[in-house]
Specification:
Oligomer: heterotetramer
Order of helices and strands of chain B: HEEEEHEEHHHEEHHEEHEEHHH
Number of strands of chain A: 16
Low-confidence stretches of chain B: none
Bound molecules: siroheme, iron/sulfur cluster
Low-confidence stretches of chain A: none
Structural class of chain B: alpha+beta
Strand order of the largest sheet of chain B: 1-2-3-6-5
Largest interface: C-D, 146 and 136 residues
Strand content of chain A: 5-15%
Mean pLDDT of chain B: 97
Chain lengths: ~425, ~375, ~425, ~375
């Protein structure tokens, strides 16, 4: 039976949504009963429940700073955590997490997951996050001595490495892409895996001013939210025309096919009206429907995906596909949240991804050189200006990179912009212009 | 054999990265990789994707609370073995997807999932999260594992999802609605572009543990961490420490991240802010940031009624007022923010007026407004 | 004949647009011939032409800083100017301008203008600007000794005062308003004159951190550009419904009336299409036309003026009129250009304008108190925040004042916002939270 | 009698303000003040306003170059006396308006105005400036009277208006087009919200007249004036002076305004920048700033061909591409700025990318763009 009374937490067992409290309780119980030779405190889940109950009473967190814990030779992958009431809750005195690098787009075999479970029940709390916000498998809570043991078993038995934390490359992630999505403009999983392997050193050994994140979206729908969450956001797009199946279009207008793959089935929105729902909503007004033929002026299309999303069976992305590369997204601290800024409007994304890797490395060199401690790339770009960033990337300025040209006239001209430079002789000037 | 503390470097393996995703793809996925033609949502939580080979994959998406025990994961594996040849996946929003390659396998799978409940009575595998409905809430650690949270994460999420459970299993919204939670301004969920963001914030400047500050912190780092330059070096009772210009503090918690002797969290001071109207996709309109519409609500464990209530007000107004395909933020901009506050019944206060770096760009330089 | 050769300037006599060079030459000539007893150098216009020619060769201006010149007891109204080639162009050695406060909306009797001409020919260069950018009559160029003489004659014989310059209230100006415009929502001329008289002291005697400008637009069309050019912009608007004359609407749709008062007559835009040209362009989509009746959902209307502009004979502004008050517009120096920000969505504008004057004075007190030297109001508002400005104005926050709520969560909470305040005892805290 | 230098304060009159506008209103205006019902543009430059009393006022608007001699003003008076009972007015854009109260008086007035030319052959009173056409260019002093200009004003305006003369007399544009000119960044015309703004800018940091700087300037004021903090105190050859970090300079000229020993103007360094797409009115869209689309063009007296040419390119592309009622800036935003540069043929350079305070808000955080 439970070690601590948890009247408040018990309230969270009610309601239909899966209860993490119920799940924790079942885990606590199974640790009670198990004959597995547990290396982490048997009562850690019990104590975690107790600590949570106490926190629910106090409304102030009871965890302390992590301190520096980790595995030998790595600068990341482990988050240290200590409880501020160790006497009362010895099971979570030290309760560190490991970040385990998930496979691209998070398909699993049960065989693999069972190995993870077996290891984590034995050497950890048996609690996980599937998954963390960056994408890792989070093994939530174990003691300091277990860290190396777990790392050894992960690498030797599971052929599995840790993910990132600290001032290094963070675990890259991607959308499901070509594995199960018709909109994928490039192979997000292949690139994500390739970049993760290529930059293992940057991922495990902090050499950056601060964290750096890659995320790979297969198309502008942005299912892995890269534009908001990655220092480098790679978002699929295409150059040529949207492919149209006119008969399928008619099937939509005729009502045989449900718009948006049936995404709006929960409410009666009336019969599908292609004019109202597609043509009029196209942000560039580049579409036309004459009652039996759909026309798209592709030159004006900005590939927002709307029409394709609404009629996936009738419209397909183009064939000349690649990606837009954007840089600088981050959370609010310090300068305020940022989304990534369009830097390379279009790049082909094909193995071995030389062009993209060259770019990444130019950016890293610049950031490592100029970035202050704990300054994200996006903040550096703001501090030194986007023009400077373009020079670093060896790219020409392009209006596609901006929403609008500057409205202030404060151009920072360089001396080389002015024929003859800046050197002038005041006395020459005074010959023509007396004081 | 195994790890040898006496010789840590023995046979050490490093830099091997993640497992190759190809090992983990079910055969229908592997065979039709990159060949998908289109998809359909058969019912909430059930997708079919059709390949140019004619093959189909049926996906059943179920809500997961991402805090999962190994016991629960083993149960998931058991299901996957029974119905899905031993494969499954997790989505970018912590839902679980079970896939089968034949329609006939759908029903048994769905019934099996349906049938499973936790001891407390909650569903283990609620089906849904697709289309123009509500999907899972992405969230962060909260009181369960971090040291800087202003609010809990998993608990708040549970309360909101319980209340909106029907909408997870329905597709009655004008467009998809993404709710996200981050428990402090570090914003680990990067919730700044969500239709609705639940954010933990502090309202009190850090306490100063002068007696220990110098031992526990790198004072220069703490000073440098402050974006407003509110922290200055100081000597208190002969001890090296810092002083904080409270009126300059914007409660970001950076100092505490650098220095454990400067805790901010407080029962009165810490709570929930709500942001709305952000989006990620480039569909129709460009991605946008969420805007703060509720500056502060108290932590109300265990069920956070005020937070849940405010979110329902926002969703109801949105569902009533928005047009098909219109995201929450696009709706608010179309009707105007003055109308947003009127229709949601949320009070507008000075706290919601920007006074940070780009403040001017958010004020109204026009005579266009609605009475 | 001309004193200086001006081959380059002569090029500017060509072309159809009125040539200021031809005009200057005719003035130079008439100064040659006149028997008026000229008090300013007879050859000043000749020398000005010569100086301009030299500048056209050098491409660098030949005027120096003004220095402090003016009339006794006034801090503004005169702009000092000296030439940097006085030997070569003695006629413009000192060439100061006076700013003469124009009558509201710039109607004139020829009698008055002739008095001005007589005075300025005799005591100045005979050159003017009708008008300066702020609105004044600019008397362009005279010598230092003439300044007091001119001021004396202006005040005694023309019953006319100077306008503003320096760190004081600048000459207010307004659109033509009710004098000849059906869109005027309040009497711009009356208010402009009233405020100019009320604040004569602020206008003539610098007591502010920097300049301050009032401009009065009768409606959102903004014909005096107040939203871009005034520290306080008063822009007419209304609260009730747009008045519709349905028959006149039909006259427009029927083609008897030309849309927009015929403003587009220079090109064949085809027959007037009320749906396309009005209903679909209404920014709030609050209009409907069913083929014979025009409907406006006035609650949703933002009074942008478009429909009224297009059909002035059919649509009229409401009857419950007043103005929106906005603050802070300015040119780029230093912080970048600003437009005025909506501060009072609606205020009745009726004599004696107490409410508006109270507001102005609150704002001036605040700015005089907190503003740095050469800091415009708009810059102060940015520096201290709009919330602070609202406190000063004793106004409640209103979503109409903003384009959108803040996206950053960096709220500057005040101690009084938090019950119990900010004082906490670290040792109390440590009882529950060990180090 | 008159002003007595020996006794300046004798009978001194001050603070009397401007003349009362009511004295100057023609009777038809006075009688129908506030009673106007609607208006019509009979032809370019000719307006009729109709009062609820049935009265009408006919207005003939003619272009003025606001730099006017008393001789010219007297000629205007003569015309007003002959046709308009001795009244006239000036517009907010420096045009002159002659008003008559009866249609029969229009023709003679127009013919009279038409007939007058300057010796050089230019028109004295070109009729136009109304409706969806080009009106007068508001401008500042330029080389004619100020000390900080980077360009001339009246001369540039003359060149542009000569070239666009037909459009002043026509109404073929999609909407009104406002061109404005300011000769330095002080921007006395407040041209920052114009459809097309001609702006004088410098590209060279100030020269330093060390020998005299200390006598001629308040060094602290000069230092304080610099928005980028580029100016530091310095001692040169034993004399108190300043040093400028050139790479920090943004050429705003503030230092020169404070200190005559820091001149910027230069034949190579100073020239024209063009900004487009601003507007003031709240019609349909909100007021907006003009954007820099041509960073620099040389001063080319006497006719500034490159400047005139660039403006024509912009106008032609606008007139071809814009829809009825669409202002220049609204057109550019609708087609996208990438298209604007394509259609105008203007080169896009890094200079046009914002790097000032709100820079980030002008960059593109989206994948929406046109190839
Ligand atoms: C575990 C995780 C939250 C979760 O529950 O999922 C997490 C947890 C922490 N984050 Fe995070 N971050 C996590 C994803 C993120 C994300 C989201 C993302 O990567 O897409 C962000 C926003 C995106 C971004 O990078 O800007 C994020 C922005 C931060 C920041 C603010 C960084 C910034 O530049 O603004 C901090 C503060 C810091 O770095 O000191 C931070 C710091 C932290 C720390 C290490 C707290 C600290 O300051 O020491 C948290 C440890 C919690 C704990 O005890 O376990 N975390 N962090 C996520 C990592 C799991 C994983 O690897 O999959
Ligand atoms: C499975 C998943 C990708 C993955 O790698 O895991 C996914 C899968 C699909 N997304 Fe997504 N999206 C997924 C996260 C996202 C996200 C990221 C997020 O929410 O954090 C976004 C951006 C959200 C935003 O814009 O704020 C996202 C924005 C979209 C959109 C744009 C919708 C819109 O109205 O803006 C589409 C298009 C659509 O729905 O028609 C889309 C479409 C789709 C399609 C239809 C693509 C396809 O043809 O298969 C997939 C099924 C949609 C559905 O569930 O109805 N997906 N999708 C993610 C499921 C998360 C979940 O469990 O709920
Ligand atoms: C004469 C006039 C330009 C013209 O040719 O029409 C003018 C001329 C000067 N302005 Fe101005 N400003 C004139 C209207 C403006 C306007 C437009 C307006 O008022 O609508 C502005 C922009 C709006 C604004 O106030 O921001 C304007 C913004 C400036 C500035 C920048 C102020 C700022 O805060 O950014 C300066 C610089 C300064 O104040 O030192 C300035 C400074 C000057 C000085 C005094 C130059 C100086 O620094 O000493 C110029 C004297 C020129 C001369 O020698 O005659 N002038 N000035 C305008 C006044 C005539 C009149 O009274 O009717
Ligand atoms: C005479 C004048 C007022 C004055 O006090 O002097 C005036 C007079 C009228 N304006 Fe204006 N506007 C005058 C400067 C302005 C300005 C200020 C400026 O340009 O510096 C603006 C703002 C410009 C901008 O938005 O950038 C201005 C924006 C308008 C608009 C909005 C047009 C638009 O498409 O945005 C209208 C409505 C319309 O034209 O239908 C308007 C309408 C009118 C009407 C029709 C009002 C009326 O019913 O009498 C007048 C005749 C318009 C015409 O000329 O076709 N007036 N008008 C000004 C003439 C200046 C000139 O000589 O050309
Ligand atoms: S981002 Fe695009 S490609 Fe990737 S899963 Fe979403 S819709 Fe498919
Ligand atoms: S993708 Fe978007 S922009 Fe392109 S045609 Fe479809 S709706 Fe229009
Ligand atoms: S958001 Fe803040 S409190 Fe929550 S996990 Fe991230 S760092 Fe910790
Ligand atoms: S909370 Fe943030 S703003 Fe306040 S003192 Fe700490 S670092 Fe500075
Ligand atoms: S601002 Fe309005 S009221 Fe004033 S003149 Fe222009 S249109 Fe008429
Ligand atoms: S004034 Fe503008 S917003 Fe109002 S109805 Fe007319 S067009 Fe629409
Ligand atoms: S814009 Fe500059 S140069 Fe031109 S008049 Fe104004 S201050 Fe002088
Ligand atoms: S021109 Fe402007 S930026 Fe350059 S030194 Fe002078 S004040 Fe500073």
């Amino acid at each position: 039976m439970a070690k601590h009374k948890t009247p408040m937490l018990d309230e969270l067992e009610k309601g239909k949504w899966p209860s993490f409290i119920s799940d924790m309780k079942q885990e606590a119980e199974s640790r009670e009963k198990t004959n597995v030779d547990l290396q982490a405190p048997k009562e850690c889940v019990d104590d975690l429940l107790g600590l949570m109950e106490l926190t629910y009473e106090d409304k102030v967190v009871h965890w302390k700073h992590g301190g520096i814990v980790g595995v030998f030779g790595y600068g990341g992958g482990v988050i240290g955590r200590y409880c501020d009431q160790p006497e009362q809750f010895p099971g979570v005195r030290d309760f560190h997490t490991l970040r385990v690098n998930q496979p691209s787009s998070k398909f699993y075999s049960t065989e693999y997951l069972r190995q993870v479970c077996e290891l984590w029940e034995r050497r950890g709390s048996g609690l996980t996050n599937m998954h963390g916000s960056t994408g890792d498998i989070i093994l939530l809570g174990t003691t300091t001595p277990q860290l190396e043991e777990i790392f050894w078993e992960l690498t030797h038995n599971l052929d599995q490495d840790l993910g990132g934390s600290g001032s290094n490359l963070r675990t890259p992630s991607c959308c499901i892409g070509k594995a199960r999505c018709e909109f994928a403009c490039y192979d997000t999983q292949a690139v994500c895996t390739d970049f993760t392997m290529e930059y293992q050193d940057e991922l495990h050994r902090p050499a950056f001013p601060y964290k750096f994140k890659f995320k790979f979206d297969g198309c502008p729908n942005g299912c892995v939210a890269s534009i908001a969450r990655a220092d480098m956001s790679v978002i699929g797009t295409w150059k040529d025309d949207i492919r149209i199946d006119q008969d399928a279009v008619k099937a939509y207008t005729g009502g045989e096919l449900k718009p948006n793959g049936g995404a709006h089935a929960g409410r009666d929105w009336g019969a599908f009206d292609i004019q109202k729902e597609v043509i009029d909503l196209c942000p560039t007004n580049c579409m036309a429907w004459d009652g039996n033929k759909l026309k798209i002026d592709n030159k004006e299309c900005t590939r927002c995906m709307h029409c394709i999303n609404v009629m996936p069976k009738a419209l397909r992305i183009g064939k000349d596909t690649g990606a837009s590369i954007l840089f600088g997204a981050k959370a609010p601290i310090l300068e305020g949240a940022q989304m990534s800024t369009l830097t390379v409007p279009f790049m082909k994304i094909e193995e071995p991804y030389e062009e993209l890797k060259d770019l990444v490395e130019k950016v890293w060199d610049y950031w490592s050189e100029e970035g202050k401690n704990r300054e994200r790339l996006g903040e550096l770009i703001q501090r030194e200006g986007f023009q400077k960033f373009l020079e670093v990337c060896e790219l020409d300025a392009d209006p596609r990179m901006i929403q609008e040209p500057r409205s202030n006239p404060y151009i920072f001209w360089k001396e080389e912009d002015v024929p003859g430079g800046w050197e002038r002789d005041i006395n020459e000037f005074r010959k023509k212009h007396q004081r | 054999m195994g790890y040898d503390p006496k010789d840590p470097l023995k046979d050490r393996i490093t830099d091997i990265g993640p497992r190759d995703y190809k090992e983990f793809l079910p055969s229908v996925i592997k065979e039709n990789y990159g060949k998908w033609l289109y998809h359909e949502i058969l019912e909430p939580g059930v997708l079919v994707h059709v390949s140019e080979t004619g093959a189909k994959v049926y996906t059943v998406r179920v809500g997961g609370c991402r805090l999962m025990s190994v016991t629960h994961i083993r149960e998931i594996c058991e299901i996957a073995d029974k119905h899905c040849d031993g494969y499954l996946r997790f989505t970018t929003r912590n839902n679980v997807e079970f896939m089968v390659d034949d329609e006939s396998k759908l029903k048994p799978l769905m019934e099996d999932l349906e049938s499973r409940e936790f001891a407390g009575g909650s569903k283990k595998f609620p089906r849904g999260g697709t289309g123009a409905g509500l999907t899972n809430i992405v969230h962060t650690q909260g009181w369960l594992h971090c040291h800087t949270p202003a609010i809990d994460a998993s608990g708040v999420v549970k309360c909101v999802m319980d209340e909106l459970y029907e909408d997870f299993q329905d597709m009655r919204f004008p467009a998809q609605v993404r709710i996200s939670l981050a428990c402090c301004l570090n914003m680990c969920g990067a919730v700044h572009c969500s239709d609705i963001a639940i954010l933990g914030i502090h309202r009190m400047p850090p306490m100063l543990d002068h007696e220990h500050l110098d031992n526990m912190c790198e004072i220069p780092l703490a000073i440098a961490a402050c974006p407003t330059g509110a922290i200055k070096p100081a000597t208190v009772d002969g001890k090296k420490s810092v002083a904080v210009k409270n009126e300059r503090c914007m409660f970001c918690g950076n100092c505490y991240t650098m220095c454990p002797s400067m805790p901010l969290a407080d029962e009165e001071g810490s709570g929930v802010a709500l942001l709305v109207g952000g989006k990620i996709s480039n569909r129709i309109t460009e991605p946008k940031f969420s805007k703060v519409v509720v500056p502060f609500l108290y932590n109300e464990p265990p069920r956070w009624p005020s937070t849940v209530d405010a979110i329902k007000k926002i969703l109801n107004a949105y569902v009533d007022g928005a047009q098909k395909y219109e995201r929450l933020g696009d709706w608010a901009e179309r009707i105007g923010w003055e109308r947003f506050f009127e229709k949601t019944g949320l009070p507008f206060t000075g706290h919601l007026i920007d006074d940070y770096r780009f403040a001017y760009t958010t004020w109204r330089q026009s005579t266009q407004f609605k009475f």
